[in-house]
Amino acid sequence: MSAHPLISVLRLAAGSLLALLGLSACAANVGPPEADPSALPPTVLAALQRARLPQDALAALVVPVDGRAAPRLAHRAEQALNPASVMKLVTTYAALDMLGPAFTWDTPVYLDAAPQGGRLRGNVYIQGQGDPKLVLERLWLLMRRLRALGIDVVEGDIVLDRSAFVLPAHDAAEFDGEPWRPYNAAPDALLINYKALAMDFRPDAAAGVAHVHYAPPLAGVELPASVPLAAPGQACGDWRTALRGQFDDAARVSFAGAYPLACGAREWSVATADPAGYAARAVAGMWREVGGRLTGRVRDGQVPAGLQPVLSNPSPALAEVVRDINKYSNNVMTQQLLLTLGLQKAGQGSFEAARSVLAQWWRARVGTADSPVVDNGAGLSRDARLSPQALARMLQRAWASPVMPEFMASLPMAGVDGTLRRRPALAAGGAHLKTGSLRDVTAIAGYVLGASGRRYVLVAMVNHPNAAAARPALDALIDWGVADAYFAPNRN
To answer: 249-255 long-range contacts, Cβ below 8 Å, gap at least 24?
Structure first.
């Protein structure tokens, strides 16, 4: 029996409507075609023009994190440039992948005699093994645990074994002529508190001074307890310069200037004039701080064969260390990490061994021919080189790896924390990116979550004498990535 003609017409119309809806859905999934991926987005181009920077100063790549589609942007992506601190991404991911996020460093302590009646008639040996986070409170805990062994007086020496790392001579002023900057500190098998002296300034208007507290307590260093306050009404401004600190005497810190009351409480960390002797001064000062006495001295040496440790001071897990490195771009911690790769995987804590280990890892795990020139692994280098293309490939591999959660969580979140806390609001929470800057270098790299729900790898590097002016262009690139051009009719 044939259908009524009207029913047939309705069925035909319904089928046509469903087909049309299906085509529309496909079109929505595909989105409008992308423009030439080598062409910079208009907002980025405009920001470069305002900064008077040529397009070829920038190399950038924005590509889906899963690698299943063509890049959204590929502008000079194959060019190997200086990445500044973005190089830390290579070192930290390699360490997570090779050592595992639960890896820890130990700092064992040895005695060559048994304590009797509160006295140790022998030596204490503290063996550094590269812990990047043997900070003030953990040094205090180590000294307290040593006291808890029943030692009030060491009638010998405290010997610091720093032989785990084999390091070249280091000139803290060589990189940029600013040896007092903590970022210029050299790595050390027994790195204590990043070799930095933290100064806490607390103004006291009634007394006319700012009281100064120091950490850690450094034995044999004269530290003034206060500095005079500046004239009433003086703005805070560049208060560090106004203090006119003198740090070139290993036995004395002094201030020739004054502290502005308007600054309120402030902190300032500096590298000391005797970095090689820093650990000895810090250990001697902290031993005294916890009530211990020492008849000998704190000196360098090695643990005698055959001794067994009486205690060990484990570090935080690698996942936490990597978070500190990437969130706050800590240079000396990154160098410690690179050297640890050499020590753990090649048996030698040297930069040569570490670079060889990392190069082998790169070939096996990332596989690109354009492997990085890592130098010290921290990006504090004029020689480091890496292309956006190579770094993006590594970031894609990291995204698919078992340590992805720990690695991604270590990156600063735009508008939220770390070195990106003041980044534009559009990207707030939607971008996990590592920043990098040197004289002539500005860079950024990591992961961006688009408004569509798609996630991308974003890498951008600027090498130019006016690179600092490129930051608005990189901000515009981040915003463009978050805005997600796959779902917009235009690339801007």
So the answer is: 249/273, 250/221, 250/274, 250/277, 251/220, 251/221, 251/222, 252/221, 252/222, 253/197, 253/221, 253/222, 253/223, 253/224, 254/224, 255/224, 255/227
